[in-house]
Amino acid sequence: MKSLCLKIPNVDRIGLIKDISCILAERQINILSMEVKPNTVFLEINLLTEDDKFYIFQTIRAISQVIDVQEIDLMPYQEKAEQLKAVLGSVSDGIIAVDPQGNITQHNPAAEKITHLTADQLVKSSLDSLFPPSIVPLRTLLQTGTGYDNCEVINIPTQSHYLTSGRPIMDSSGRIIGAVAILKDISDVRDLVYTVTGQSSFSFGDILYTSKAMQRVATLAKTIAQGDSTVLIRGETGTGKELFAKAIHDTSARAKELFVPLNCAAIPDTLLETELFGYKDGAFTGSAKGGKKGLFEFADGGTIFLDEIGELSTSLQAKLLRVLQEGKIRRIGDTLEIPVNVRVLAATNRNLEEMIQQGKFREDLYYRINVIPLFIPPLKARRDDIPLLSQLFLRRYAARLHKPVTAISESSLQKLMEYHWPGNIRELENVIERAVNLVAGSILLNEHIIFDHDYSPTPLETVLPECALDEILDKVERDVLIKALTQHRTLRQLGKALSLSHTAVLKKLRKHGLSIVKR
Ligand SMILES: Nc1ncnc2c1ncn2[C@@H]1O[C@H](COP(=O)(O)OP(=O)(O)OP(=O)(O)O)[C@@H](O)[C@H]1O
Fold it and tell me: Do the beta carbons of residue 192 and residue 181 sit within 8 Å?
């Protein structure tokens, strides 16, 4: 039933509320809420009919000392609640208020985002049902009344990580009637530290290793980072080339500017050119009005990371060489040259020297980008790193998949140490993710470790007897695609490996309900 809110200005007198109540009672009208302030009464009542409404306006106005009766949209308490909601909704920090028993009474949308809990989970729930007691300083606060500042909370089941400060809410006699916690997401804290101190948000500390080989690479990379020269990062697929590029940028003098990564193999040539250099207004049919900035312009002042540079077509290689030599770009369809100040980091797992011999890679570009070569060793050449990286991925996927697995058995670690890792750290991550999916207990065992090459395609003998040729071909096609997907990350690479066009690959993936694994 709809309610009607009234504001009744008056000259205070004893018995006025009783008179109003009598009029409403006579008409069987229910009072939903009432607020009495000096010289004003606010009423929220059930609205019955237009006739009732006319009647109560007339009769209440006629009460002695009543000045007027006005209809209003919201009661004062509703207005305050709306204002509070707007204030809570406008802050980026999470806010959670609880009553003395630890039941959540208020929270804002930022708290949902930071705790990774939904409004339904938070509303009227108790702290203990949502957070392990060991990570809820608010619970202690309710007992001691002592506030706290910037406690770090990592809640593994919900994958949330934040800093929280808390204060008690006391009544006038000093009794604790609740508490309020402020939550700051850890990534916002990092950004803040970065803004204030200029300290890098991603550093070499995020690249894990124990091997001597990697120590040498990391030391060299840290030195390189201080300079401004072009770096060519070499290494097999999945060895961490992009990770190094990011660490070099974030430790360099350009750290405050943009790091723009581009995988040259992921985009067809024609698009790649517009991505890199942009285009002028009206350069071609369907081009955006006002033209478009390319990535070199975007990255101005910062770093551009050209991953899989060996996949660039020879015509784009020539254009890239011009930018590196002249420090200027020209948008497609434009004659104007725009100066850009961009550090180029490039990476490849291809043998560029062999490609030069075959005429597939320009020698002049090679010398231009290979100013400082950085070789990331394959995982099989630094097996000492396997236990540490395995633990990292085990923790990551145990948390992500809500599994209680905490350790890797001796023999499975042995199995990991003996494998040749053609897909390097990316493959190790896949294998651990797969194992965590399979494990039921707390220890990852030998049987949970399945390498990519262990996935053997359906043997033909098992399908031949009962299937039509179309079905057999379908099964084989699906197996081949699954196998190829474990080795290639982009449509372009897949297409190349299977001698198919982009669209043909895409169509086949769709047909079998498969997709490229994004990382
Ligand atoms: N030393 C490391 N510590 C932690 N994670 C790592 C390390 N090296 C690589 N990784 C992880 O392995 C994955 C592959 O790394 P990355 O993408 O940097 O490799 P890449 O050599 O650039 O691969 P590709 O040649 O296929 O582009 C990423 O998820 C990355 O975070």
Answer: no
User: Residues 342-373, buried b or exposed e (16+ Cβ, 10 A)?
Assistant: bbbbbbbbeebeebbeeeebbeebbebbeebe
Closest to 202 (Cα-Cα) out of 234, 249, 258, 153: 249
Determine what percent of the chain is predicted with pLDDT higher than 90: 47
Distance from C-alpha of 381 to C-alpha of 420, rounded to nearest angstrom: 9
Taking CA atoms only, the protein residue closest to ligand 1 atom 24 is 237
pLDDT recorded at residue 1:
64
Identify the band that residue 519 occupies on the pLDDT scale cut at 50, 70 and 90.
Answer: very low
DSSP one-letter code for 290 = T
Q: For strands 3-9 and 94-98, give the pairing.
A: unpaired
Question: Could you give the ipTM of this predicted complex?
Answer: 0.97
204-375 belongs to which CATH class?
A: alpha beta
* The predicted structure's pLDDT at residue 341: 94
- Rounded to the nearest angstrom, the distance between the alpha carbon of 424 and the centre of ligand 1 is 8
CATH 3.30.70.260 fits 3-78, yes or no: yes
Substitution candidate for ligand 1 out of 208, 262, 426 with most atoms within 8 A of CB: 426
Determine the distance separating the centroid of ligand 1 and the alpha carbon of 268, expressed in angstroms.
24
Question: Which protein residues are within 6 Å of ligand 1, measured from CB?
Answer: 207-209, 235, 237-243, 307, 347, 349, 389, 425-426, 429, 519
Contact 334, 373 (CB under 8 A): no
Instruction: Collect all residues with Cβ–Cβ distance below 8 Å to 209 and sequence separation of at least 6.
Output: 215, 218, 382, 385, 388
Q: Are 20 and 65 in contact (CB under 8 A)?
A: no
Check whether domain 379-452 has CATH 1.10.8.60, yes or no: yes
pLDDT of residue 279: 86
Q: How far is the CA of 464 from the centre of ligand 1 (A)?
A: 41
Mutate which of 203, 397, 425, 493 for ligand 1? The one with the most ligand atoms within 8 Å of its CB, which is 425
Q: Please give the distance, rounded to the nearest whole angstrom, from the Cα atom of residue 222 to the centre of ligand 1.
A: 17
For the domain 91-190, what is the CATH code? 3.30.450.20
**Ligand 1 center to 487 CA (angstroms):** 14
Residue nearest atom 8 of ligand 1, based on CA coordinates: 240
Please give the distance, rounded to the nearest whole angstrom, from the Cα atom of residue 379 to the centre of ligand 1: 11
pLDDT, the chain, mean: 86
Specify whether the CB–CB gap between 247 and 225 falls below 8 A: yes
Model confidence over 205-220: pLDDT tens digits? 788 889 999 999 999 9
Q: How many residues does the chain have?
A: 519
